Amino acid sequence: MSTHPESAPTPQEPTHPGGATPERAGETGPTRITVGTGTGQGGEQLGYDVLVGHGLLARLPEMVGPHAERVLVIHPRALRATGDVVREDLENAGYRAVVAEIPDAEEGKHIQVAAFCWQVLGQNSFTRSDAVVSVGGGAVTDAAGFVAATWLRGVRVVHMPTTLLGMVDAAVGGKTGINTAEGKNLVGAFHQPAGVLADLDTLLTLPRNELVTGLAEVVKCGFVADERILEIVEEAPDQASNPHSPRLRELIERAIAVKARIVGRDPGESGDREALNYGHTLAHAVELAERYQWRHGAAVSVGMVFAAELARSMGRLDDATVDRHHRILSSLGLPTTYRDDRWNQLLEGIRRDKKNRGDRLRFVLLSGVGQPATVEIPDASILYATYQEIAAAPETGAIQL
Ligand code: GLY
Fold first, then answer.
1. Ligand 1 centroid vs 4 CA: distance in angstroms?
2. Is the CB of 173 under 6 A from ligand 1?
3. pTM of the predicted model, to two decimals?
4. Does 13 score more than 60 pLDDT?
């Protein structure tokens, strides 16, 4: 994240209802992608903006808005210095800013962490017009969003994602949640942010495996809705994971625009939004089997290959598109196989998926690029047969990313 608010550009970005196509204000200016979330009681358009660019910290006050007096900045331990800069900047802008430092990664999504944040909010007399700002990766976005969704039944939250996964997925779309002993994200709420600042400067210091695994969600957006994403990766896979490359910026903007379009149509995931779960049914099962030691994007990569192979087995998807999954994901260094001795654990995980209805297993499958549908699986035996297509001996199986 940039700690240089004075270098932030301040052009007027064109607005794009529904995030159809992101537009830039200039070569170095930020891109504004609008996420529409329906119409208000007076018929007005509701929604929020995602800004993508460099040095965006100076844009935070406009997203927090003029009505808040107090702002809680929630950040993980690893981003203490950045959290302090954000707090100081908010103080300079006239807010009373308080910091809540939470544990890193999934440890931050514990009910006791939420309770700690509620305590800070209560002790500092936060009212309904006050706001929360999250600074961090997807886990922080989820936890801070949940705290904002539940405090006084909902206060404004602005996300400042600092990872690729956070930018293209977790920070956009309003899913918030915490984990319980029984599983990830079982408790949560839909709570759309007031705005998102995706500062590309944060990617310059992101560990390479974080960047590469975040690309799995970008590729997912390509397969479900934007073939140009796939072409950009195919043209230059090494540029896709280069934080200095304009191609990575274009991939990020396109992935956010895909998410904005889909979330705009179905914010509460009662239909179209399930497409964003492409590859996630097996991915969640792999994460569970690996006790969450695999990065989410690595599991999503394997999950997409599994879904493509399943669609082929069911006669829904052509060989070329299945091969394209293998080729694109491998070219990025993402895993496309999984160890061959874990089927029972995987099936148990698949059965717990949120898309299932009663005993009926459901997967998001493609019938072509940009053509996702949620499909009921008639018989679990086809899943086992498909597993053979992606299984590899543990020692030669997918690398842990
Ligand atoms: N990560 C999928 C969604 O936000 O719907």
1. 31
2. yes
3. 0.92
4. no
